[in-house]
Amino acid sequence: MINVTDKAKDRIIELREKEGKSNDHNIRVLVQGGGCSGLMYDLKFDAQIESADEVFEDKGIKILVDKKSLLYLLGTTLDFSDGLNGKGFQFINPNATRTCGCGESFSV
């Protein structure tokens, strides 16, 4: 399961409207190689649900995850911060053993 905080939900809805996307555009969460810790998160809107995708829904937000990325993301919470210490989406990932200072990459 992947969860979404209220702040992340509000920001996703705001961005979807700002980019002119319909409610059929869901959030796709990917894990890719790269970053200073070895693995990076990637978020994007996607209207296509692939047959190999796992689909989670929390607070009315559908989250699409491919099976490879799911291994790294189970139990993760997607949050959004707009504070002084950084602005953007943050992943609270119980599987990460190390994260970089910017919070965009991790290792397991």
From TrEMBL:
Signal peptide start-end: none
SUPFAM superfamilies (UniProt xref): HesB-like domain
A Pfam family the protein falls into: Fe-S_biosyn
InterPro entries, sorted: ATAP (IPR016092), ATAP_core_dom (IPR000361), FeS_cluster_insertion_CS (IPR017870), HesB-like_dom_sf (IPR035903)
Residue intervals of the Core domain: 2-104
Name this polypeptide is given: Iron-sulfur cluster assembly accessory protein
